[in-house]
Amino acid sequence: MAEVNFNYMAKSPLSGKTVASQEKLVSQQKGNRDLQNLREAAKREISQAVYSYFTASREVLNELFTDGMTYQEYFAHEASDEMGHYLQLLRMVSKLDSTQKEQFIEHTLGAYLVENQEPSFKLWRGPYCYPPQERELRWLNTFREVVKAISLELETINKYEQYINEAGNPEVKQLFTEILNHEKGDLADFNQMLFSLFNIK
Ligand SMILES: [Fe+2]
Ligand SMILES: [Fe+2]
After folding, report:
1. How far is the CA of 151 from the centre of ligand 1 (A)?
2. SS3 string of the chain?
């Protein structure tokens, strides 16, 4: 007698759906979850990281920090990196969401948001100068912005680890892993800045 694969046609005692259709549903749900997480991550990159690092670059000390860069330049440099993450995430969204892809192309953004072309955006517009008596206030601004940046990077690392665990698509998992590793570098950069503000060597 032929062996019947009961697993394939098995019905769940709870829902009555076949295992195959449940598996399809789970994979659809994972696909939707990937898209939602990509959009959430893109929102985090543009509205928190890019925005706060770019605005910080105008408010902080115009003094040498590291690698020949001032605190102002370093914040602008971090803002550019975060902009890169934002673009990578939107490209993955357009890969998984055909309507979004069509819209990007229709708005002549296909080269940057569908293909991998890097736009040349300039987030460094300084140096931003100030009178010497403002130095103490600038130091305090730098401290405040560094603390905000450390908090944001820590939260982002936690979020991206969650998105990696939830990822259904291996390319999404790979992208979140790549960006996560970069955020861990950012956390080190901002701690280096914190230590330098207090002259801890
Ligand atoms: Fe980022
Ligand atoms: Fe970051």
Report:
1. 13
2. CCCCCHHHHCECCCCCCEHHHHHHHHHHHHHHHHHHHHHHHHHHHHHHHHHHHHHHHHHCCCCEEECCEEHHHHHHHHHHHHHHHHHHHHHHHHHHCHHHHHHHHHCCCHHHHCCCCCCCCCCCCCCCCCCHHHHHHHHHHHHHHHHHHHHHHHHHHHHHHHHHHHCCCHHHHHHHHHHHHHHHHHHHHHHHHHHHHCCCC
For the CA of 89, the nearest ligand: 1
Comparing 30-34, 145-149, 181-185, 192-196, the range with the smallest average pLDDT is 30-34
Say how many domains are in the chain: 1
Is pTM, for the whole model, over 0.85? yes
How far does residue 132's CA lie from ligand 1's centre (Å)? Answer: 33
Q: What tens digit of pLDDT does each residue of 39-93 get? A: 999 999 999 999 999 999 999 999 999 989 999 999 999 999 999 999 999 999 9
**How many whole angstroms from 16 Cα to the centroid of ligand 2?**
46
**Domain harbouring 81, CATH code:** 1.20.1260.10
Ligand 2 center to residue 181 CA distance, Å? 9
What's the 159 CA to ligand 1 centre distance in angstroms? 11
Report if residue 20 sits inside a domain.
no
Flag whether 9 is in a domain.
no
Q: Is the pLDDT of residue 6 over 80?
A: no
| Ligand 2 mean position, distance from CA 43 (Å) | 13
